[in-house]
């Protein structure tokens, strides 16, 4: 098997194994089913076009996730479009209940976070990536990701506590 054919096979395997995850990742940015599908399709095209630039086959998953994140961010910049996701839509696209945003307060708090924090939270807790994988996806060093994760969780705690306090009074 030639090197290009082997790379193509590995890329197809990666895309197939992670298709639901990358779709949810794209959806977490654009909050629209059709746009998320378009982003995934564009990311797949970009991945095949740039496959020769992949230095390590071991990093193919984080490399592809990075393409999906960048394509999602490009889409948002082009369309300057942010929408709120409702629970019914989220449940319809998730394969299992464990990945659904069941807490509306959490969903609102996540929406209020700046993109750099929301990305880290989404990749870590909803896509279950490790810190070093998130660093690869976002092209940041590991300590930056740890700091952003800590700050994001702190902001979420503050937001969630503030909402709870307001509702109690």
Automatic annotation (TrEMBL):
SUPFAM superfamilies: Sigma2 domain of RNA polymerase sigma factors, Sigma3 and sigma4 domains of RNA polymerase sigma factors
Occurrences of domain RNA polymerase sigma-70 region (ranges): 15-81
InterPro entries: RNA_pol_sigma-70-like (IPR039425), RNA_pol_sigma-70_dom (IPR014284), RNA_pol_sigma70_r2 (IPR007627), RNA_pol_sigma70_r4_t2 (IPR013249), RNA_pol_sigma_r2 (IPR013325), RNA_pol_sigma_r3/r4-like (IPR013324), WH-like_DNA-bd_sf (IPR036388)
Limits of the RNA polymerase sigma factor 70 region 4 type domain: 106-156
A Pfam family assignment: Sigma70_r4_2
Domain of life of the organism encoding this protein: Bacteria
Gene3D superfamilies on file: 1.10.1740.10, Winged helix-like DNA-binding domain superfamily/Winged helix DNA-binding domain (1.10.10.10)
Keywords of this entry: Sigma factor, Transcription, Transcription regulation
NCBIfam families referenced in this protein's UniProt entry, alphabetically: sigma70-ECF
The family this protein is said to belong to: Belongs to the sigma-70 factor family. ECF subfamily.
Name under which the protein is recorded: RNA polymerase sigma factor SigV
Natural source organism: Paenibacillus allorhizoplanae
């Amino acid at each position: 098997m030639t090197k290009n054919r082997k790379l193509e096979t590995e890329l197809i395997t990666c895309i197939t194994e992670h298709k639901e995850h990358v779709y949810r990742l794209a959806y977490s940015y654009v909050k629209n089913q059709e746009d998320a599908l378009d982003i995934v399709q564009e990311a797949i095209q970009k991945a095949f076009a740039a496959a020769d630039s992949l230095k390590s086959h071991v990093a193919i998953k984080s490399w592809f996730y990075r393409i999906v994140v960048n394509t999602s961010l490009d889409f948002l910049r082009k369309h300057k479009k942010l929408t709120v996701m409702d629970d019914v839509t989220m449940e319809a696209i998730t394969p299992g209940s464990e990945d659904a945003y069941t807490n509306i307060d959490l969903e609102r708090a996540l929406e209020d976070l700046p993109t750099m924090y929301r990305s880290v939270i989404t990749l870590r807790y909803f896509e279950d990536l490790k810190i070093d994988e998130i660093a690869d996806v976002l092209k940041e060093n590991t300590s930056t990701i740890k700091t952003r994760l800590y700050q994001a969780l702190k902001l979420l705690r503050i937001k969630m506590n503030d909402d709870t306090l307001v509702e109690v009074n």
